[in-house]
Amino acid sequence: MNITKTEYGHIQEQTIYQYRLKNDKGLEVAILNYGCIVTEIMMPDKQGQHENIVLGLSSLEEYQVNAPYFGAVVGRVAGRIKGASFQLDDKTYTLDQNDANNHLHGGNEGFSHKVWEAKTVEEKDCVAVVFSYVSKDGEAGYPGNLQLKVTYSLTNENELKIDYNGQSDKKTILNPTNHTYFNLSGNSKRDVLSHTLQMESDQFLELDHESLPTGKKLHVTGTPFDFRNGRKLQDGVASTHEQNQLAGNGYDHPFLLQDDCNFTISLYDEESGREVKIKTDQPSVVLYTANHLSDEYSFYGHPSRKYLGVCLETQGLPDAIHHPEFPSIILNKGERYHTSTVYAFKGR
Ligand code: FUC
Question: What is the value of pTM for the model shown?
Fold first, then answer.
Protein backbone atom coordinates (compact mmCIF):
# COMPACT_ATOMS: atom_id res chain seq x y z
CA MET A 1 0.00 0.00 0.00
CA ASN A 2 1.24 3.51 -0.55
CA ILE A 3 0.42 7.20 -0.78
CA THR A 4 1.74 9.58 -3.40
CA LYS A 5 1.48 13.34 -3.12
CA THR A 6 1.49 15.58 -6.19
CA GLU A 7 1.01 19.30 -6.66
CA TYR A 8 -2.48 20.11 -7.90
CA GLY A 9 -2.60 23.93 -7.87
CA HIS A 10 -2.23 27.05 -5.78
CA ILE A 11 -4.50 29.31 -3.80
CA GLN A 12 -2.53 32.47 -3.16
CA GLU A 13 0.72 31.19 -1.67
CA GLN A 14 -0.76 27.91 -0.46
CA THR A 15 -0.03 24.77 -2.44
CA ILE A 16 -2.87 22.35 -2.99
CA TYR A 17 -1.86 18.68 -3.20
CA GLN A 18 -3.56 15.59 -4.47
CA TYR A 19 -3.01 12.56 -2.23
CA ARG A 20 -3.37 9.23 -3.97
CA LEU A 21 -4.01 6.29 -1.63
CA LYS A 22 -3.40 2.88 -3.21
CA ASN A 23 -3.93 -0.56 -1.77
CA ASP A 24 -2.42 -3.88 -2.86
CA LYS A 25 -5.63 -4.85 -4.69
CA GLY A 26 -5.37 -1.95 -7.14
CA LEU A 27 -8.01 0.28 -5.56
CA GLU A 28 -7.04 3.97 -5.66
CA VAL A 29 -8.57 6.99 -3.99
CA ALA A 30 -7.38 10.53 -4.81
CA ILE A 31 -8.17 13.38 -2.42
CA LEU A 32 -7.27 17.07 -2.29
CA ASN A 33 -6.34 19.11 0.76
CA TYR A 34 -8.86 21.60 -0.65
CA GLY A 35 -12.36 20.77 0.66
CA CYS A 36 -11.11 17.20 1.41
CA ILE A 37 -12.42 16.58 -2.10
CA VAL A 38 -12.42 13.02 -3.42
CA THR A 39 -11.50 13.60 -7.06
CA GLU A 40 -11.19 9.97 -8.16
CA ILE A 41 -11.88 6.44 -7.01
CA MET A 42 -10.40 3.93 -9.43
CA MET A 43 -11.78 0.39 -9.21
CA PRO A 44 -12.03 -2.58 -11.58
CA ASP A 45 -15.21 -3.70 -13.32
CA LYS A 46 -16.07 -7.36 -13.86
CA GLN A 47 -13.59 -7.50 -16.76
CA GLY A 48 -10.86 -6.06 -14.57
CA GLN A 49 -10.97 -2.63 -16.21
CA HIS A 50 -9.94 0.13 -13.78
CA GLU A 51 -12.06 3.26 -14.14
CA ASN A 52 -13.12 6.22 -12.09
CA ILE A 53 -16.42 5.69 -10.24
CA VAL A 54 -17.00 9.24 -8.96
CA LEU A 55 -17.70 12.58 -10.63
CA GLY A 56 -14.60 14.73 -10.42
CA LEU A 57 -13.43 17.89 -12.16
CA SER A 58 -10.09 18.37 -13.83
CA SER A 59 -8.70 21.50 -12.17
CA LEU A 60 -8.61 23.36 -8.88
CA GLU A 61 -10.11 26.43 -10.55
CA GLU A 62 -13.21 24.43 -11.45
CA TYR A 63 -13.59 23.22 -7.86
CA GLN A 64 -13.21 26.76 -6.54
CA VAL A 65 -16.26 28.09 -8.33
CA ASN A 66 -19.48 26.94 -6.85
CA ALA A 67 -19.43 23.48 -8.41
CA PRO A 68 -22.15 21.40 -6.76
CA TYR A 69 -19.88 20.06 -4.02
CA PHE A 70 -18.37 17.25 -6.13
CA GLY A 71 -16.57 14.87 -3.74
CA ALA A 72 -16.27 17.46 -0.96
CA VAL A 73 -16.73 17.44 2.78
CA VAL A 74 -19.58 19.85 3.41
CA GLY A 75 -20.39 21.66 6.66
CA ARG A 76 -20.45 22.85 9.35
CA VAL A 77 -24.01 21.68 8.72
CA ALA A 78 -24.91 19.63 5.64
CA GLY A 79 -28.20 20.28 3.90
CA ARG A 80 -30.49 23.26 4.38
CA ILE A 81 -31.13 25.36 7.47
CA LYS A 82 -34.48 27.11 7.17
CA GLY A 83 -34.32 30.89 7.06
CA ALA A 84 -30.52 30.75 7.42
CA SER A 85 -30.77 31.28 11.15
CA PHE A 86 -31.17 29.34 14.36
CA GLN A 87 -31.38 29.83 18.09
CA LEU A 88 -29.17 28.36 20.74
CA ASP A 89 -29.72 29.27 24.40
CA ASP A 90 -31.90 32.25 23.41
CA LYS A 91 -29.27 33.69 21.12
CA THR A 92 -30.08 34.00 17.44
CA TYR A 93 -27.34 33.17 14.94
CA THR A 94 -27.58 34.39 11.37
CA LEU A 95 -25.92 32.27 8.72
CA ASP A 96 -24.96 32.81 5.07
CA GLN A 97 -28.03 32.73 2.86
CA ASN A 98 -26.80 30.77 -0.14
CA ASP A 99 -29.89 28.84 -1.23
CA ALA A 100 -32.78 31.29 -1.70
CA ASN A 101 -33.71 32.27 1.89
CA ASN A 102 -31.95 29.29 3.37
CA HIS A 103 -28.46 28.17 4.30
CA LEU A 104 -26.99 25.21 2.37
CA HIS A 105 -23.98 22.95 3.03
CA GLY A 106 -22.17 25.38 5.35
CA GLY A 107 -22.64 28.61 3.38
CA ASN A 108 -20.75 30.49 0.67
CA GLU A 109 -17.36 29.17 1.75
CA GLY A 110 -17.96 26.13 3.89
CA PHE A 111 -15.57 23.24 4.55
CA SER A 112 -15.78 22.36 0.83
CA HIS A 113 -13.94 25.57 -0.01
CA LYS A 114 -11.21 25.59 2.63
CA VAL A 115 -7.57 24.62 2.52
CA TRP A 116 -6.97 21.84 5.07
CA GLU A 117 -3.70 20.78 6.73
CA ALA A 118 -2.77 17.25 5.77
CA LYS A 119 -0.75 14.48 7.40
CA THR A 120 -0.20 11.08 5.87
CA VAL A 121 -0.03 7.79 7.77
CA GLU A 122 1.34 4.61 6.17
CA GLU A 123 0.93 1.30 7.94
CA LYS A 124 1.15 -2.30 6.76
CA ASP A 125 -2.56 -2.82 6.11
CA CYS A 126 -3.84 0.74 6.04
CA VAL A 127 -2.90 4.07 4.51
CA ALA A 128 -4.55 7.30 5.61
CA VAL A 129 -4.60 11.06 5.24
CA VAL A 130 -5.65 13.13 8.24
CA PHE A 131 -7.01 16.54 7.24
CA SER A 132 -7.34 19.27 9.89
CA TYR A 133 -9.04 22.62 9.81
CA VAL A 134 -9.91 25.22 12.44
CA SER A 135 -13.17 27.00 11.73
CA LYS A 136 -13.12 30.35 13.55
CA ASP A 137 -15.83 31.57 15.88
CA GLY A 138 -18.42 33.31 13.70
CA GLU A 139 -17.35 31.66 10.44
CA ALA A 140 -20.37 31.60 8.09
CA GLY A 141 -22.32 32.75 11.18
CA TYR A 142 -21.75 29.69 13.39
CA PRO A 143 -20.59 30.09 17.01
CA GLY A 144 -17.41 28.62 18.49
CA ASN A 145 -13.86 27.98 17.37
CA LEU A 146 -14.26 24.50 15.97
CA GLN A 147 -11.33 22.15 15.48
CA LEU A 148 -12.08 19.54 12.89
CA LYS A 149 -10.26 16.46 11.67
CA VAL A 150 -11.39 14.35 8.74
CA THR A 151 -9.48 11.11 8.21
CA TYR A 152 -9.66 9.03 5.05
CA SER A 153 -8.26 5.50 5.56
CA LEU A 154 -7.94 2.84 2.89
CA THR A 155 -7.40 -0.83 3.72
CA ASN A 156 -6.49 -3.96 1.78
CA GLU A 157 -10.08 -5.14 2.36
CA ASN A 158 -11.08 -2.50 -0.23
CA GLU A 159 -12.67 -0.33 2.44
CA LEU A 160 -12.46 3.43 2.60
CA LYS A 161 -13.35 4.85 5.99
CA ILE A 162 -14.10 8.50 6.65
CA ASP A 163 -13.84 9.60 10.30
CA TYR A 164 -15.03 13.01 11.37
CA ASN A 165 -13.73 14.37 14.70
CA GLY A 166 -14.51 17.78 16.14
CA GLN A 167 -14.42 19.92 19.26
CA SER A 168 -15.60 23.48 19.87
CA ASP A 169 -14.82 26.04 22.58
CA LYS A 170 -18.49 27.18 22.59
CA LYS A 171 -21.81 25.42 22.21
CA THR A 172 -22.48 25.08 18.46
CA ILE A 173 -24.06 22.86 15.83
CA LEU A 174 -22.22 20.38 13.64
CA ASN A 175 -23.38 17.90 10.99
CA PRO A 176 -20.81 17.37 8.22
CA THR A 177 -20.94 14.82 5.43
CA ASN A 178 -19.13 13.84 2.26
CA HIS A 179 -20.77 14.83 -1.02
CA THR A 180 -19.29 12.32 -3.47
CA TYR A 181 -21.36 11.61 -6.58
CA PHE A 182 -20.97 7.92 -7.47
CA ASN A 183 -21.26 6.63 -11.02
CA LEU A 184 -20.36 2.94 -11.13
CA SER A 185 -20.51 2.71 -14.94
CA GLY A 186 -16.87 3.93 -14.90
CA ASN A 187 -15.57 7.20 -16.35
CA SER A 188 -19.15 8.54 -16.41
CA LYS A 189 -20.10 6.49 -19.49
CA ARG A 190 -23.75 6.16 -18.54
CA ASP A 191 -26.09 7.89 -16.13
CA VAL A 192 -26.93 6.21 -12.83
CA LEU A 193 -30.58 5.41 -13.49
CA SER A 194 -29.93 1.71 -14.03
CA HIS A 195 -27.99 1.47 -10.75
CA THR A 196 -29.76 -0.59 -8.10
CA LEU A 197 -29.96 0.80 -4.59
CA GLN A 198 -30.76 -1.43 -1.65
CA MET A 199 -31.11 -0.01 1.84
CA GLU A 200 -32.62 -0.93 5.15
CA SER A 201 -34.79 2.11 5.61
CA ASP A 202 -38.52 2.09 6.17
CA GLN A 203 -39.05 5.84 6.55
CA PHE A 204 -38.00 9.02 4.78
CA LEU A 205 -38.57 12.69 5.47
CA GLU A 206 -41.23 14.60 3.59
CA LEU A 207 -39.84 17.76 1.95
CA ASP A 208 -41.55 21.06 1.25
CA HIS A 209 -41.22 23.12 -1.96
CA GLU A 210 -37.88 24.54 -0.71
CA SER A 211 -36.51 21.01 -0.13
CA LEU A 212 -36.70 21.48 3.63
CA PRO A 213 -38.09 18.72 5.86
CA THR A 214 -41.69 19.42 6.91
CA GLY A 215 -41.10 17.33 10.05
CA LYS A 216 -43.29 14.50 8.79
CA LYS A 217 -41.80 11.01 8.44
CA LEU A 218 -43.34 9.00 5.61
CA HIS A 219 -43.42 5.22 5.34
CA VAL A 220 -41.75 3.79 2.26
CA THR A 221 -44.17 0.88 1.81
CA GLY A 222 -45.87 0.92 -1.59
CA THR A 223 -43.83 3.88 -2.88
CA PRO A 224 -40.73 4.36 -5.09
CA PHE A 225 -38.96 5.19 -1.80
CA ASP A 226 -38.98 1.53 -0.79
CA PHE A 227 -35.42 0.30 -1.40
CA ARG A 228 -35.56 -2.53 1.14
CA ASN A 229 -35.55 -5.22 -1.55
CA GLY A 230 -33.48 -3.25 -4.05
CA ARG A 231 -34.82 -0.89 -6.70
CA LYS A 232 -33.44 0.91 -9.73
CA LEU A 233 -32.99 4.66 -9.33
CA GLN A 234 -34.99 5.28 -12.51
CA ASP A 235 -38.17 4.36 -10.59
CA GLY A 236 -37.97 7.75 -8.87
CA VAL A 237 -37.60 9.61 -12.14
CA ALA A 238 -40.52 7.90 -13.84
CA SER A 239 -42.58 8.27 -10.66
CA THR A 240 -45.76 10.31 -10.26
CA HIS A 241 -45.22 10.43 -6.48
CA GLU A 242 -45.56 14.05 -5.43
CA GLN A 243 -42.30 13.88 -3.45
CA ASN A 244 -40.27 12.65 -6.46
CA GLN A 245 -41.75 15.35 -8.66
CA LEU A 246 -41.15 18.08 -6.11
CA ALA A 247 -37.47 17.07 -5.90
CA GLY A 248 -37.10 17.75 -9.64
CA ASN A 249 -38.13 14.21 -10.74
CA GLY A 250 -35.93 11.95 -8.71
CA TYR A 251 -34.69 11.77 -5.14
CA ASP A 252 -33.29 14.44 -2.84
CA HIS A 253 -34.50 12.92 0.40
CA PRO A 254 -33.23 11.96 3.85
CA PHE A 255 -33.88 8.28 4.65
CA LEU A 256 -33.87 7.07 8.24
CA LEU A 257 -31.41 4.27 8.84
CA GLN A 258 -31.78 1.27 11.07
CA ASP A 259 -29.71 1.61 14.19
CA ASP A 260 -27.19 -1.15 13.58
CA CYS A 261 -23.60 -0.84 12.50
CA ASN A 262 -23.76 -3.11 9.47
CA PHE A 263 -23.56 -2.36 5.78
CA THR A 264 -27.13 -1.10 5.39
CA ILE A 265 -26.76 0.57 1.99
CA SER A 266 -25.69 -1.01 -1.30
CA LEU A 267 -25.33 0.64 -4.69
CA TYR A 268 -24.86 -1.83 -7.54
CA ASP A 269 -24.42 -1.52 -11.29
CA GLU A 270 -25.16 -4.78 -13.08
CA GLU A 271 -23.46 -3.90 -16.36
CA SER A 272 -20.06 -3.14 -14.83
CA GLY A 273 -20.50 -5.54 -11.91
CA ARG A 274 -19.35 -2.84 -9.49
CA GLU A 275 -20.85 -2.41 -6.04
CA VAL A 276 -20.33 0.04 -3.18
CA LYS A 277 -21.61 -0.90 0.26
CA ILE A 278 -21.94 1.69 2.97
CA LYS A 279 -22.15 1.42 6.72
CA THR A 280 -22.46 4.36 9.04
CA ASP A 281 -23.19 5.31 12.63
CA GLN A 282 -25.25 8.27 11.39
CA PRO A 283 -29.05 8.26 11.71
CA SER A 284 -29.77 9.07 8.06
CA VAL A 285 -28.59 9.17 4.47
CA VAL A 286 -29.62 11.82 1.96
CA LEU A 287 -30.18 10.25 -1.43
CA TYR A 288 -29.65 12.81 -4.21
CA THR A 289 -29.87 11.69 -7.83
CA ALA A 290 -28.34 14.90 -9.25
CA ASN A 291 -31.74 16.09 -10.44
CA HIS A 292 -30.39 19.62 -10.82
CA LEU A 293 -27.00 18.86 -12.36
CA SER A 294 -26.51 21.22 -15.30
CA ASP A 295 -24.43 20.70 -18.44
CA GLU A 296 -21.67 23.12 -17.43
CA TYR A 297 -19.13 20.46 -16.37
CA SER A 298 -17.44 17.78 -18.36
CA PHE A 299 -16.27 14.30 -17.35
CA TYR A 300 -14.05 12.27 -19.65
CA GLY A 301 -15.35 14.34 -22.55
CA HIS A 302 -18.99 13.78 -21.60
CA PRO A 303 -20.90 16.91 -20.62
CA SER A 304 -22.60 16.63 -17.25
CA ARG A 305 -26.35 16.20 -17.14
CA LYS A 306 -29.13 15.28 -14.78
CA TYR A 307 -28.73 11.83 -13.17
CA LEU A 308 -25.06 11.48 -14.03
CA GLY A 309 -24.21 10.77 -10.40
CA VAL A 310 -25.80 9.72 -7.15
CA CYS A 311 -24.91 11.09 -3.72
CA LEU A 312 -25.41 9.03 -0.58
CA GLU A 313 -24.77 11.61 2.13
CA THR A 314 -24.64 9.94 5.55
CA GLN A 315 -25.46 12.50 8.22
CA GLY A 316 -27.76 13.71 11.00
CA LEU A 317 -31.15 14.86 9.75
CA PRO A 318 -31.23 18.12 7.75
CA ASP A 319 -32.53 21.20 9.54
CA ALA A 320 -32.44 19.25 12.83
CA ILE A 321 -31.92 22.49 14.75
CA HIS A 322 -35.52 23.48 13.90
CA HIS A 323 -36.95 20.06 14.69
CA PRO A 324 -36.58 19.10 18.36
CA GLU A 325 -38.06 15.68 17.47
CA PHE A 326 -34.99 14.88 15.29
CA PRO A 327 -31.74 13.61 16.85
CA SER A 328 -29.79 16.64 18.09
CA ILE A 329 -26.86 18.09 16.13
CA ILE A 330 -25.83 20.37 19.01
CA LEU A 331 -22.20 20.07 20.07
CA ASN A 332 -21.58 21.30 23.59
CA LYS A 333 -18.49 23.23 24.60
CA GLY A 334 -15.54 20.85 24.97
CA GLU A 335 -17.60 17.81 23.90
CA ARG A 336 -15.95 15.42 21.46
CA TYR A 337 -17.73 14.83 18.17
CA HIS A 338 -17.04 11.63 16.28
CA THR A 339 -18.84 9.84 13.48
CA SER A 340 -17.69 7.51 10.75
CA THR A 341 -18.83 6.04 7.45
CA VAL A 342 -17.24 3.07 5.69
CA TYR A 343 -17.46 2.46 1.94
CA ALA A 344 -16.63 -1.09 0.80
CA PHE A 345 -15.90 -1.54 -2.92
CA LYS A 346 -16.72 -4.86 -4.51
CA GLY A 347 -16.11 -6.04 -8.04
CA ARG A 348 -18.10 -9.08 -9.16
C1 FUC B 1 -27.63 17.82 -2.33
C2 FUC B 1 -29.05 18.26 -2.31
C3 FUC B 1 -29.32 19.61 -2.67
C4 FUC B 1 -28.36 20.34 -3.57
C5 FUC B 1 -26.94 19.86 -3.45
C6 FUC B 1 -26.00 20.28 -4.51
O7 FUC B 1 -27.13 17.58 -1.06
O8 FUC B 1 -29.72 17.92 -1.13
O9 FUC B 1 -30.64 19.78 -3.10
O10 FUC B 1 -28.79 20.42 -4.85
O11 FUC B 1 -26.74 18.59 -3.07
Answer: 0.97
